[in-house]
Fold this protein.
Amino acid sequence: MSLFEVTAYDREVYENELRDFLPEKMIDIHTHVWLAKLRPPKAPKPGEVKRTVTWPSLVAKDNSIEDLLETYKLMFPGKEVTPLIFSNAGREHLDVCNEYVRECAARTGVPALYYSRPEQSAEEVERHIREGGFLGVKSYLDLSPAYLPVGEIRIFDFFPHHQLAMLDKIGGIVMLHIPRNGRLKDPVNLAQILEIKQKYPKLRLIIAHIGRAYTEFDVGNAFEVLAPCTDLMFDFCANTCEYAMTRMLEAVGPRRAMFGSDLPILRMRMRRIEENNTYINLIPPGLYGDPRQDSHLREVSEEEGKRMTFFMYEEILAFKRAAKTVGLTAADIERCFYSNARELLDVARRDIYGA
């Protein structure tokens, strides 16, 4: 039995729009692997405020390394895709989930990031990186101190200075999912990104999801403010905002943009629209439970749902339109989907391990 269905409409989109657009080799710079048995669900505590949206958890209960590699075979026939992997877990399950990522990377040869906690010392994080063969770190805003309201979390609350200084020393990668309701344009986020690159110029900072700029409203003047950061990288994972992609490419060019998926959530069938300065994921009826569980979900008619493809394809189609707008060449597109990430991973490995 296949991991998930690939419909005739999916094949039509891939063959007519994507196969020839994409290079033969690709690197997916942003993926999660975990097993459900390693992070069993827990009941929420009374009064607990959820710091994340619900809808990503509806797509897959887990994503083993085998499922991840099978996803590429199903979605990108004829292409060779290598993922950068890291975990997806709360604090109480991170150790065992990091160990699973380490084992997956060792077994398959794919690169990986260590999922860090802000309370860890620099020495502890560096030891885990080196012992596990990791190329840097990923962390998340939900690991910041519990007393902070979600709208007031800052980057340094989950990526503290002592860890960033260590990553600067070794030349490691930092995959940054920025916090705060203002997303990419938030002035605190922008100030702290500038501070990171000024204080720690040798760490390799990736702004995930184009800074969560999922709508035109989220961009603001961010690219003008960040212009001094000439080596700042952006991945465009889990994003279908053509405007944000176009502004990114105009501002930083094709040498600092990287394809990422955020798998497994890009297995979702959906089409994204913007409404009242936020995003809505339009989904087929009945596929992901009650859409009222998350304000970002809205069901469409059964007929419209039959003409919905994967979030993965919608992301790449948006990038294709942005690439056409700014006049990217085939060589530029190859850089965004492969060479930029290849070079980043190679230099991080060289600097950390001398090989």
Remarks:
- The two ends are 41 Å apart (CA to CA).
- The CA atoms of residues 26 and 338 lie 5 Å apart.
- The longest helix spans residues 330-353.
- The mean pLDDT is 95.
